[in-house]
Amino acid sequence: MTEALLDRARALPIWQGRVTFTPLDGGITNVNHLATDGRVRAVVRLGADIPVHQVMRFNELAASRAAHAAGISPAVLHSEPGLLVIEFIDGRTLAAEDVAQDAMLERVLDLVARAHRDMPAHLRGATLAFWVYHVIRDYGARLVAEGSPRAGLVPDLMAAAAVLEAATGPVDMVFGHNDLLPANLIDDGARLWLIDWDYAGWGSPLFDLGGLAANNGLSEAQELHMLEAYFGTPPDGGRLRAYRAMKCAAALRETLWSMVSETHSTLDFDFAAYTETNLVTFRAAMADFLQS
């Protein structure tokens, strides 16, 4: 399938000369290649819809275009079923230790806040909602129905999710990225870019903020500063509890995503190890939440 998609990509009308493709490392949802025709460099993302992860490419395309219009992401150069071609950004992909530096965290938070604030004006057509607790329940049901080796963990994880959803309470809607892994942030030396909008959708800003903390090992002091900077006021008890619930939910969603990927993904990646790492992160976050 990958070779067939690459053959289609080679024949796209956007190239002005012989195009070459080089695989890009790091993606754990799609297969990505760096394409160059001697004039332009672009990232070619290969992948159809992924129903088991609720990834719909029409939504990714709408979000990618809106993110570019808002100055958040590189331009979409071409799209068709199975192919998305995006401008290549020559920069450094961030790691968790980068994001956890105070100066970088300020830059990342500004980028996320601008995405939440500015992207809705540029969205066109149908887009998806992203409610993490629905995603969690769907993953849990799938693991049980398919007889996953992880199915025995599901009842306790779903019980935890129910506690977290009740603590989250009402939400203010934004159009979020919902996958704030450090690898989705690029520093080109002058500015930051936020890429990969597979899981974008309408939901709570606290999910992106909680994901930012859970995925990058932020300290409690950094989390409190992040909330005050984002909302413009120190968090009260209700908002802080809702945030902590969403932080746990972000870690749980990543854990379940990996559990499902263990049996559904064809990418060369150690999902079992990734599951174990995220399970530790979730359990630590949940223990902190229950003690707060």
From TrEMBL:
List, alphabetically, the GO terms of the cellular component aspect: cytoplasm
Instruction: Give one GO molecular function term.
Output: ethanolamine kinase activity
A Pfam family in this protein? APH
Residues in Aminoglycoside phosphotransferase domain copies: 21-242
The record's Gene Ontology biological-process terms are: phosphatidylethanolamine biosynthetic process
Record-linked InterPro entries:
Aminoglycoside_PTrfase, Kinase-like_dom_sf
- Keyword presence, Repeat: no
What keywords appear on the UniProt entry? Transferase
**Transferase found in the keyword field:** yes
PANTHER family for this protein: CHOLINE/ETHANOALAMINE KINASE, ETHANOLAMINE KINASE
Q: What is this protein called?
A: Phosphotransferase
Species of provenance:
Rhabdonatronobacter sediminivivens
